[in-house]
Every structure is written in C-alpha cells, then in structure tokens.
User: Which sequence fits this backbone?
C-alpha cells in the first residue's frame, strides 16, 4: 500500500514541513549556484572564449559583444538559469517530493509544467521586487529577499499540488 495513504495527519504535517525545508534549502543553493555560474562565466569563460575565438563574427556578435547589449552577461544569465532550473527540478522531483517515475511522457509533462511555472514565478519575483524597491523604497537586498522567500513559498505549494501531485 502507498506510504502517503498510510500517513497520519501528524506524520503528513511533518512531511510537508520537511519537504518545505528541503525545498527552500535547495532554492537558496540554486540562488548561490546561479551567482557562481554567472561569475565563472564573467571571470573565466568570457576572457577564454573572446580572446581565443572572438575574431569569429558569430561568436563576437552572440557572445563577446557589449554594444549595444552586454551579451556575455545575457549568455551567462541564460546559462545559469538553465542549469539551475534543471538542477532544481531534479532535486525537487527525486529528493523533496520523492517521485520515482522516470517514464518519458510523465517526466516531460512534469518538466513542462515546472518550466512554465518557473517563467511565471520569475516574473512574479521580479514584479514584487520592483514594487517593493520602487514604490515602498525598500533597499534592493531586502526587497529581493522578500520577493524570493514569498515566491518560493508559494511555488512550493503549487509544485506540490500541480507539478508533482503530492496528496
């Protein structure tokens, strides 16, 4: 019989708390990983690629150019977000929510939901941060922490119910 169906309300409540703590710990780890990837891109990859391959027009335009946009920063951000989304999805699925299914169809549907929600919650986080900073005059660091904490807390319950379908 399924373990979740045998849980008492007390065990189920402590399970949710454990899941939420792991979820938030992994969220903090992904924020740090995102920062690390972007710094590694800035300090190591950009000089390495642009010095050795910058004369190739496509690489210059899509990666090395800083005019009119800072392409190394954009590419670093995209790389960091992609890696952290994949890592967080894997941790959430197998560690936080203890899902063991790996069938292609089910995993594809889960990941699609997770990815779309990631886009929505990224917009939500940016919006909350923008409002707190620009209309309430909060310092960037405080507005960022409030936005991320509330966003990840809400996201936990949405992922739990709609992405990984934990009862």
Assistant:
């Amino acid at each position: 019989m399924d373990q979740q169906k045998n849980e008492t309300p007390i065990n189920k409540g402590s399970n949710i708390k454990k899941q939420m703590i792991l979820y938030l710990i992994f969220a903090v780890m992904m924020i740090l990983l995102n920062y690390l990837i972007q710094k590694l891109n800035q300090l190591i990859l950009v000089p390495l690629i642009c010095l050795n391959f910058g004369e190739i027009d496509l690489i210059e335009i899509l990666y090395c150019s800083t005019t009119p946009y800072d392409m190394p920063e954009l590419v670093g951000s995209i790389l960091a977000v992609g890696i952290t989304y994949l890592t967080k999805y894997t941790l959430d699925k197998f560690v936080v929510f203890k899902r063991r299914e790996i069938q292609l169809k089910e995993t594809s549907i889960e990941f699609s939901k997770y990815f779309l929600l990631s886009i929505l919650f990224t917009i939500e986080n940016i919006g909350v941060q923008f409002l707190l900073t620009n209309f309430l005059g909060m310092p960037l660091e405080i507005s960022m922490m409030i936005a991320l904490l509330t966003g990840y807390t809400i996201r936990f319950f949405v992922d739990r119910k709609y992405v990984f379908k934990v009862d």
The chain has one domain: 3-163.
